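User: Could you check the structure of this?
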Amino acid sequence: MKVYTYWRSLATFRVRIALNLKGLKYDPVEVNLDTGVQHQPDYKNVNPQMVIPSLVLDDGSVLYQSLAILEYLDEVYPEPPLLPADPKGRARVRALSLITVADSHPLIVPRVRNYVGATFGLDEEGKAAWVRRWFGQGLDAYEAHLARDKATGTFCHGDTPTMADLCLVSHCTGYMVFKGTLDGHPTVQRIHSRCMADEHFASAHPLRQPGAPKAH
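Assistant: Sure, the predicted C-alpha coordinates are below.
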Protein backbone atom coordinates (compact mmCIF):
# COMPACT_ATOMS: atom_id res chain seq x y z
CA MET A 1 0.00 0.00 0.00
CA LYS A 2 1.02 3.62 -0.36
CA VAL A 3 0.08 6.75 1.52
CA TYR A 4 -0.13 10.21 0.02
CA THR A 5 1.32 12.30 2.80
CA TYR A 6 2.95 15.56 3.78
CA TRP A 7 5.04 16.22 6.86
CA ARG A 8 2.77 18.83 8.47
CA SER A 9 -0.58 17.17 7.79
CA LEU A 10 -2.24 16.35 11.13
CA ALA A 11 -4.72 13.98 9.49
CA THR A 12 -1.87 12.04 7.93
CA PHE A 13 -0.09 12.05 11.30
CA ARG A 14 -3.02 10.03 12.70
CA VAL A 15 -2.78 7.51 9.88
CA ARG A 16 1.00 7.15 10.25
CA ILE A 17 0.56 6.30 13.93
CA ALA A 18 -2.03 3.65 13.11
CA LEU A 19 0.20 2.07 10.47
CA ASN A 20 3.08 2.02 12.95
CA LEU A 21 0.96 0.43 15.69
CA LYS A 22 -0.25 -2.23 13.25
CA GLY A 23 3.30 -2.89 12.04
CA LEU A 24 2.35 -2.17 8.43
CA LYS A 25 4.81 -1.14 5.75
CA TYR A 26 3.81 1.46 3.20
CA ASP A 27 5.31 3.61 0.48
CA PRO A 28 4.97 7.33 1.25
CA VAL A 29 4.18 9.67 -1.64
CA GLU A 30 4.73 13.33 -0.83
CA VAL A 31 2.00 15.82 -1.69
CA ASN A 32 3.55 19.21 -1.00
CA LEU A 33 0.65 21.24 0.33
CA ASP A 34 2.75 24.40 0.42
CA THR A 35 3.38 24.38 -3.34
CA GLY A 36 -0.15 23.34 -4.28
CA VAL A 37 0.62 19.87 -5.61
CA GLN A 38 -2.73 18.71 -4.23
CA HIS A 39 -4.49 20.81 -6.89
CA GLN A 40 -2.66 19.23 -9.81
CA PRO A 41 -4.56 16.80 -12.08
CA ASP A 42 -2.41 13.81 -11.08
CA TYR A 43 -3.43 14.05 -7.45
CA LYS A 44 -6.96 15.21 -8.16
CA ASN A 45 -7.42 11.91 -10.01
CA VAL A 46 -6.44 10.11 -6.81
CA ASN A 47 -8.61 12.19 -4.49
CA PRO A 48 -11.06 14.65 -6.07
CA GLN A 49 -11.32 16.54 -2.76
CA MET A 50 -7.61 17.36 -3.15
CA VAL A 51 -6.78 16.75 0.50
CA ILE A 52 -4.61 14.21 2.28
CA PRO A 53 -4.22 11.51 3.41
CA SER A 54 -5.16 9.06 0.71
CA LEU A 55 -4.38 5.38 1.23
CA VAL A 56 -3.99 3.33 -1.94
CA LEU A 57 -4.40 -0.41 -1.41
CA ASP A 58 -2.57 -3.08 -3.34
CA ASP A 59 -5.62 -3.63 -5.56
CA GLY A 60 -5.66 0.05 -6.50
CA SER A 61 -8.59 1.04 -4.29
CA VAL A 62 -8.26 4.50 -2.76
CA LEU A 63 -9.38 5.24 0.79
CA TYR A 64 -9.64 8.80 2.09
CA GLN A 65 -10.60 10.71 5.25
CA SER A 66 -8.40 9.79 8.19
CA LEU A 67 -11.10 8.36 10.45
CA ALA A 68 -12.40 6.07 7.71
CA ILE A 69 -8.85 4.92 7.03
CA LEU A 70 -8.27 4.20 10.74
CA GLU A 71 -11.44 2.11 10.94
CA TYR A 72 -10.52 0.22 7.76
CA LEU A 73 -7.07 -0.60 9.13
CA ASP A 74 -8.62 -1.78 12.38
CA GLU A 75 -11.08 -4.07 10.63
CA VAL A 76 -8.55 -5.61 8.25
CA TYR A 77 -5.60 -5.69 10.67
CA PRO A 78 -7.31 -6.17 14.06
CA GLU A 79 -4.18 -6.39 16.23
CA PRO A 80 -3.61 -4.33 18.21
CA PRO A 81 -7.18 -3.02 18.25
CA LEU A 82 -7.85 0.70 17.92
CA LEU A 83 -11.45 0.32 19.11
CA PRO A 84 -12.70 -1.42 22.27
CA ALA A 85 -14.59 -4.70 22.04
CA ASP A 86 -17.81 -3.45 23.65
CA PRO A 87 -20.33 -1.20 21.85
CA LYS A 88 -20.38 1.43 24.60
CA GLY A 89 -16.60 1.64 24.60
CA ARG A 90 -16.49 1.93 20.81
CA ALA A 91 -19.05 4.73 20.93
CA ARG A 92 -16.99 6.59 23.55
CA VAL A 93 -13.75 6.26 21.58
CA ARG A 94 -15.43 7.40 18.38
CA ALA A 95 -17.00 10.37 20.18
CA LEU A 96 -13.65 11.44 21.64
CA SER A 97 -12.04 11.07 18.21
CA LEU A 98 -14.68 13.25 16.60
CA ILE A 99 -13.91 16.16 18.93
CA THR A 100 -10.82 16.55 16.78
CA VAL A 101 -11.87 15.13 13.45
CA ALA A 102 -15.33 16.71 13.17
CA ASP A 103 -15.39 19.71 15.51
CA SER A 104 -11.93 21.29 15.70
CA HIS A 105 -9.59 20.25 12.90
CA PRO A 106 -11.93 21.18 10.00
CA LEU A 107 -11.98 24.79 11.22
CA ILE A 108 -8.20 25.27 11.20
CA VAL A 109 -7.02 23.67 7.96
CA PRO A 110 -5.15 26.06 5.64
CA ARG A 111 -7.96 26.49 3.12
CA VAL A 112 -10.33 27.57 5.91
CA ARG A 113 -8.00 29.86 7.83
CA ASN A 114 -6.76 31.47 4.62
CA TYR A 115 -10.35 32.12 3.54
CA VAL A 116 -11.22 33.57 6.93
CA GLY A 117 -8.07 35.70 6.85
CA ALA A 118 -8.80 37.06 3.38
CA THR A 119 -12.49 37.65 4.06
CA PHE A 120 -12.05 39.41 7.39
CA GLY A 121 -8.65 40.99 6.86
CA LEU A 122 -6.75 38.93 9.43
CA ASP A 123 -2.96 39.01 9.52
CA GLU A 124 -0.90 35.96 10.43
CA GLU A 125 -1.35 36.54 14.15
CA GLY A 126 -5.07 36.94 13.64
CA LYS A 127 -5.24 33.62 11.80
CA ALA A 128 -3.15 31.99 14.54
CA ALA A 129 -5.58 33.30 17.15
CA TRP A 130 -8.45 31.76 15.15
CA VAL A 131 -6.65 28.40 15.17
CA ARG A 132 -5.87 28.53 18.89
CA ARG A 133 -9.51 29.29 19.68
CA TRP A 134 -10.86 26.16 18.04
CA PHE A 135 -8.04 23.90 19.16
CA GLY A 136 -8.42 25.31 22.68
CA GLN A 137 -12.14 24.66 22.79
CA GLY A 138 -11.51 21.11 21.66
CA LEU A 139 -8.96 20.63 24.43
CA ASP A 140 -11.44 21.99 26.97
CA ALA A 141 -13.91 19.33 25.83
CA TYR A 142 -11.30 16.58 25.95
CA GLU A 143 -10.19 17.55 29.44
CA ALA A 144 -13.76 17.66 30.78
CA HIS A 145 -14.59 14.22 29.40
CA LEU A 146 -11.30 12.51 30.18
CA ALA A 147 -10.98 13.89 33.71
CA ARG A 148 -14.45 12.76 34.79
CA ASP A 149 -14.93 9.45 32.93
CA LYS A 150 -14.12 6.23 34.76
CA ALA A 151 -13.18 4.63 31.45
CA THR A 152 -10.13 6.91 31.16
CA GLY A 153 -6.98 5.05 32.08
CA THR A 154 -3.34 5.34 31.10
CA PHE A 155 -4.72 6.34 27.73
CA CYS A 156 -7.98 7.95 26.64
CA HIS A 157 -9.84 4.68 27.06
CA GLY A 158 -8.27 2.10 29.32
CA ASP A 159 -4.62 1.17 29.35
CA THR A 160 -3.88 0.61 25.67
CA PRO A 161 -3.92 3.16 22.85
CA THR A 162 -7.11 3.59 20.85
CA MET A 163 -8.20 5.71 17.95
CA ALA A 164 -9.02 8.46 20.45
CA ASP A 165 -5.36 8.74 21.43
CA LEU A 166 -4.28 9.10 17.81
CA CYS A 167 -6.74 11.96 17.41
CA LEU A 168 -5.83 13.59 20.73
CA VAL A 169 -2.12 13.52 19.94
CA SER A 170 -2.64 15.16 16.56
CA HIS A 171 -4.87 17.77 18.23
CA CYS A 172 -2.25 18.60 20.86
CA THR A 173 0.51 18.75 18.27
CA GLY A 174 -1.44 21.18 16.12
CA TYR A 175 -2.24 23.38 19.10
CA MET A 176 1.40 23.53 20.15
CA VAL A 177 2.51 24.44 16.61
CA PHE A 178 0.43 27.59 17.04
CA LYS A 179 2.09 28.35 20.40
CA GLY A 180 -0.59 26.88 22.60
CA THR A 181 0.33 24.97 25.76
CA LEU A 182 -1.26 22.02 27.52
CA ASP A 183 -0.64 23.42 31.00
CA GLY A 184 -4.32 24.06 31.64
CA HIS A 185 -5.33 20.54 30.63
CA PRO A 186 -3.55 18.15 33.01
CA THR A 187 -5.33 14.94 31.97
CA VAL A 188 -4.75 15.70 28.30
CA GLN A 189 -1.14 16.57 29.04
CA ARG A 190 -0.57 13.30 30.90
CA ILE A 191 -2.03 11.18 28.11
CA HIS A 192 -0.20 13.11 25.40
CA SER A 193 3.12 12.64 27.21
CA ARG A 194 2.48 8.92 27.62
CA CYS A 195 1.65 8.52 23.95
CA MET A 196 4.68 10.43 22.75
CA ALA A 197 6.94 8.24 24.90
CA ASP A 198 5.95 5.40 22.56
CA GLU A 199 8.06 5.25 19.41
CA HIS A 200 5.03 4.24 17.33
CA PHE A 201 3.68 7.71 18.05
CA ALA A 202 6.95 9.61 18.25
CA SER A 203 8.32 8.41 14.92
CA ALA A 204 5.11 9.54 13.18
CA HIS A 205 5.44 13.11 14.50
CA PRO A 206 5.36 15.75 11.76
CA LEU A 207 8.79 17.11 12.64
CA ARG A 208 10.34 13.67 12.13
CA GLN A 209 9.08 13.38 8.56
CA PRO A 210 11.05 14.07 5.36
CA GLY A 211 10.77 17.70 4.38
CA ALA A 212 10.04 18.95 7.88
CA PRO A 213 11.95 22.04 9.06
CA LYS A 214 14.97 21.27 11.17
CA ALA A 215 14.65 21.98 14.87
CA HIS A 216 16.98 24.67 16.18
